[in-house]
Amino acid sequence: MIILIAATAQNNALGKNNQLLWHLPNDFKHFKNLTSGHYIIMGRKTFETFPKPLPNRTHIIISRSQYQAPEGCITVNSLHEAIQKCPKDQDIYIIGGGQIYQQAINIANKIELTRVHHHFEADTFFPEIDPNKWQLIQEHYHPSDEKHAYSFTFQTYIKK
């Protein structure tokens, strides 16, 4: 199954200047729980926002140029090639950025979205989720608190 996983603001904002716009520890835990042990596909700019490769995941990095990725990471030139590198019988997580999500939304089977209940100024956005193509099947609300400046909702969509 091809799964898009993202955290977006109410206006679909993902980030600005290759940086996340919020810090939500429970969202990081959610991301880790879902993606651990799986292949994760991302664009080069997304990968470069990490201080080092994420543990217990196989990284596939999409780059149009000859990108020298750290040992253990796989570099490819297209989303199609990235998907071909993944096992056929396992869930694959596409983790960004905006251009990669745009390319992948029509081939994905599922979306794991953290909807941050705030509007942000951004330069990178998640594509619109078309309600004619996607069905919301699960939601879990998390209020703001001392560790989370913004409330958010974990949402799961499946393709109709």
From TrEMBL:
Pathway: Cofactor biosynthesis; tetrahydrofolate biosynthesis; 5,6,7,8-tetrahydrofolate from 7,8-dihydrofolate: step 1/1. SUPFAM superfamilies: Dihydrofolate reductase-like (SSF53597). One of its GO terms (molecular function) is dihydrofolate reductase activity. It holds the Pfam family DHFR_1. The keyword Oxidoreductase applies. Its EC number is 1.5.1.3. Belongs to the dihydrofolate reductase family. Key enzyme in folate metabolism. Catalyzes an essential reaction for de novo glycine and purine synthesis, and for DNA precursor synthesis. Keywords: NADP, One-carbon metabolism, Oxidoreductase. The keyword NADP applies. GO terms for cellular component: cytosol. It comes from the Bacteria. Residues 1-159 form the DHFR domain. It catalyses: (6S)-5,6,7,8-tetrahydrofolate + NADP(+) = 7,8-dihydrofolate + NADPH + H(+). This is Dihydrofolate reductase.
